[in-house]
Write a structure and sequence with these properties.
This protein is an alpha/beta fold. It contains twelve helices and 19 strands. Helix content is 29%, strand content 23%.
């Protein structure tokens, strides 16, 4: 469980502070009161003097950012706790510098009524060490037939409405849902996926042909995305495309915004740092939905992130056990764990000079908090002291045995990474430290 806030102030000194919410990048201090709220953060923070009895930490050589916010996390609880529980996901999140995450509703039973939203919130209060926010199903049972009680679910604590990995084919139902969601100022977050075109197992192209695997064309993402964006403009609802993988989708998003659509979008860290060639000899840990695309597509998505067309990065954390991954490629389940590796993998883009560090942190903290209305993503005075401390230059080798997640299906097994989370604070309490 999240420990109660400190009964003593906390001061982190001599640390480089990157806070996208204030466009702040400077060396200074973070001063936190005994109530777990930030009193000051920046170069001038210590001008007011150290609070009496404060716990001191020297942050020399480290970077302090707002705690990371992951907007797409799949958890097995309730129903498939062997894959992941809310508690184990929270520990994995803390190890990856994630202080808040949004939990997808594709559990068993599906999170489609008030009692299940309340179950998630209560379990998180009792067992999680980071902040857990439930997303609720847009349709009952995720069956795409009957809309859930959006207003009551939002009042109960749901921060978004989604179908998880599933496609929503009924355009009339989507229009009605978006119209209702607009009245409650709720976010509709969908993965653009045409279920008939999108039933392949990897990116459609020459490599898929060589491997003898069925392909997923770009149109499987573009066609439903174009529809969703048109519907968002029609209803004036808040729409979030939760998984984009091809540059044509980013261009469609840019065009829709120019037409006035209230639309945002995300890309998973996997699609920014991996490509279809990583599948190699049918490596199922690289079987994802949407599938990994070409290297040209990956580079174009990195560019779209850098220029702000793509709003946020998610881990798309989707734990799968041995029984669902140690299968022939076509039969294996989609998904990879990512909470613990999202930041370090993203830092590859910074070290390569492709995405500025400020934009990376914005995409993993400030911007997702803004999109979903979360009390997170900032180090401004008065905010909760959710802080991630990072050693930007530390080299390390990931082994899946290091992972705190119950499932070990990481595509970054044995990957060499540079940059690592040193400590994670939630409400000023240290919930993870190397």
């Amino acid at each position: 469980m999240i420990a109660p806030v400190l009964d003593k102030p906390l001061v982190i000194e001599n640390v480089r502070i990157i806070d996208p919410s204030r466009n702040l990048d400077e060396t200074g201090a973070i001063v936190v009161g005994a109530d777990g709220r930030i009193l000051a953060a920046g170069a001038e923070a210590l001008n007011q003097g150290r609070p009496e009895g404060a716990i001191l930490r020297d942050g020399r050589g480290l970077i302090a950012t707002p705690g990371l916010v992951d907007a797409r996390v799949h958890v097995g609880e309730p129903g498939e706790e062997h894959r992941e529980t809310i508690e184990s996901a929270s520990r994995a999140a803390a190890a990856g510098g994630v202080t808040s995450f949004i939990m997808m509703p594709d559990t068993d039973p599906v999170i489609d009524d008030i009692a299940l939203v309340e179950f998630v919130l209560k379990t998180a209060r009792d067992k999680a060490i980071v902040n857990v926010y439930p997303a609720a199903a847009l349709t009952k049972g995720l069956l795409g037939q009957e809309m859930t009680e959006l207003g009551l679910l939002k009042e109960a604590g749901a921060v978004a409405f989604t179908e998880g990995h599933r496609a929503l084919s009924d355009s009339l139902l989507l229009r009605r849902a978006m119209t209702y969601a607009r009245e409650f100022d709720a976010v509709i977050a969908l993965q653009p996926r045409e279920k008939y075109l999108g039933n392949g197992v990897m990116n459609e192209g020459l490599l898929a042909s060589w491997l003898g695997l069925s392909g997923v064309p770009k149109e499987a993402e573009l066609i439903p995305l174009e529809r969703d964006l048109r519907m968002a403009a029609l209803t004036r609802a808040k729409y979030h495309a939760s998984q984009l993988s091809v540059p044509e989708a980013a261009e469609a998003m840019r065009t829709a915004r120019n037409r006035g659509a209230n639309a945002t979008c995300a890309v998973s860290i996997n699609h920014l740092t991996l490509n279809e060639n990583d599948i190699g000899e049918y490596r199922t840990f690289f079987k994802l939905s949407p599938p990994l695309r070409t290297e040209d597509d990956r580079v174009a998505m990195v560019d779209a992130l850098a220029d702000g067309t793509i709003d946020i990065i998610t881990s798309s954390h989707d734990p799968q056990d041995v029984d669902t991954k140690r299968l022939p490629f076509a039969d294996a389940a989609d998904g990879a764990v990512g909470l613990e590796t999202m930041l370090s993998a993203a830092l590859r883009l910074h070290h390569a000079g492709q995405v500025p560090l400020m934009r990376l942190i914005d995409a993993m903290s400030t911007r997702p908090a803004q999109i979903f209305g979360l009390d997170a993503g900032t180090l401004k005075p008065g905010a909760k002291a959710d802080i991630t401390l990072i050693d930007l230059e530390e080299p390390w080798l990931l082994s899946k045995d290091m992972l705190l997640s119950r499932s070990k299906n990481t595509p970054f097994d044995d990957a060499r990474l540079t940059g690592r989370v040193v400590a994670t604070y939630v409400g000023a309490r240290c919930v993870h430290a190397l």
